[in-house]
Amino acid sequence: MPVHMRKGFIGRSAIAATLATGLAFAPALGGADTAPVAHAHDSVIASTPADGQNLDEFPRRIEMTFSGVPRDSFNTLAISNADTKEVLLTEQPELNGQVISFDVPESLDPGPGAYIVGFQITSSDGHSTRGKLSFSVGDHQVDAGGGSDLEEDAGVPTWAWIAGGGLVAVILAVVAGVAVVNRKAD
To answer: Any idea where the CopC domain is (predicted)?
Structure first.
């Protein structure tokens, strides 16, 4: 095959490759609106005792129902005194579908006061989720604990998608420019 025919063939191949690459990366070139959507992690949708609830006596069982099914790994619940911050009990809860729970030993009865149930679970998406619920016993009143404080791997930030898309655009422009110059040289 003569040299000039091969250059034309390579030039057309480069243009085709550039177009194919451009089409493959088109979603990334769109910017922030095409970045992956962050999905919510599992959150507490119900609990016993309820967040902020005032009880007559210390609960014998703690239950939390989550919006998804937590993974059966690294799940922990702890009860602490809200005023002194003393941790009274730490347990690995039972997991039954969306519900995690544990029985409070009869020997634990700290009396009237404000308490926090802190939790750390592995959400159904694999990310660690931490949060707390508050309850009180006797005449003490507490505000709701605020539910889940997500600790997560945020994934690829939007600026990285934009920078990556810009880099791909520059590379495509250089390849296309080289292909055009090679074609004109024929």
So the answer is: 41-137
Strands 113-122 and 99-103: unpaired
Q: Are residues 86 and 14 in the same domain?
A: no
Exposure class string for 99-123: b at 16+ Cβ within 10 A, else e: bbbbebeeeeeeeebbbbbbbebbb
d(CA 133, CA 136) in angstroms, rounded, equals 10
Residues 26 and 54 in one domain: no
Question: What range does the domain containing 85 cover?
Answer: 44-150
> In terms of domains, do 136 and 95 share one?
yes
Q: Which of 139, 80, 74, 135 is nearest to 100 (CA)?
A: 74
pLDDT digits (tens, 9 = 90+) for 147-157: 544 444 444 45
Reported as a single tens digit per residue, the pLDDT across 89-100 is 999 999 999 999
151 with 130: CB under 8 angstroms? yes
Cα separation, 100 vs 78, in Å, equals: 12
- As a whole number of angstroms, the distance between CA 182 and CA 45 comes to 63
Report d(CA 167, CA 163) in Å as an integer: 6
The pTM (predicted TM-score) of the whole model is 0.58
Whether the CB-CB separation of 100 and 24 falls below 8 Å is answered with no
Q: Which residues contact 4 (CB under 8 A, 6 or more apart)?
A: 186
